């Protein structure tokens, strides 16, 4: 599947550009066996001229025919190349950045290519219930692998200690799998889905 890279995209987001847009589709909770519950998800990846991709995913439980039963969850966050930030980057808070992007050309971005031929990335994802995840991983072409470095939980949050996520573009569809460690268990299948680009 071919796609057009936005002309206003800061150079360091080019490796993540295939994610941009709205994706919708269905999935299964747990291991995806016959008794696993069904869900529908809408995931949106957007960019704002800054060196990160904003991410939001909304999910609803459904029956086997795809009829919505009730809201399931919402998560939101930011995905970016893993690099040391400098004066050309925004933050913390509302601290303004320099006018030009920190990485101004494809050649500057190439300096961050890792030994496997991809790029190291980071993703920060926030959930309802006082939980935030900090992931580190890599992107190589249309494939992403992420593992949590840190899971922050509020004092009344449910037990949750680690996670991995795999994403890949296959024949134009976004396939993903999410494994989590919760309630004292080690990593186990949590959910997986196939999403199609809707815009």
UniProtKB/TrEMBL annotation:
UniProtKB keywords = Heme, Iron, Isomerase, Metal-binding
Which ranges belong to the motif GXWXGXG?
21-27
Domain of life, per UniProt, equals Bacteria
Which co-factors does it depend on? heme b
A Pfam family it matches: THAP4_heme-bd
Q: Which InterPro entries match?
A: Calycin, Nb(III)_bact/plant, Nitrobindin, THAP4-like_heme-bd
The answer to whether keyword Heme applies is yes
- Has UniProt tagged this entry with the keyword Heme? yes
The pathway to which it is assigned is: Nitrogen metabolism
The note describing how and how many cofactors are bound reads: Binds 1 heme b group per subunit, that coordinates a highly solvent-exposed Fe(III) atom.
Write down the EC number.
5.99.-.-
Binding residue positions for heme b: 33, 158, 190
Q: What class of enzyme is it?
A: isomerase
The catalysed reaction is:
peroxynitrite = nitrate
Limits of the THAP4-like heme-binding domain: 12-197
Q: Which family does it belong to?
A: Belongs to the nitrobindin family.
**Record's comment describing the protein's domains:** Forms a 10-stranded antiparallel beta-barrel structure able to accommodate a hydrophobic ligand in its interior. In fact, this fold hosts the heme group, which is located in a wide surface cleft.
Q: What does this protein do?
A: Heme-binding protein able to scavenge peroxynitrite and to protect free L-tyrosine against peroxynitrite-mediated nitration, by acting as a peroxynitrite isomerase that converts peroxynitrite to nitrate. Therefore, this protein likely plays a role in peroxynitrite sensing and in the detoxification of reactive nitrogen and oxygen species (RNS and ROS, respectively). Is able to bind nitric oxide (NO) in vitro, but may act as a sensor of peroxynitrite levels in vivo.
| Protein name, entry field | Peroxynitrite isomerase
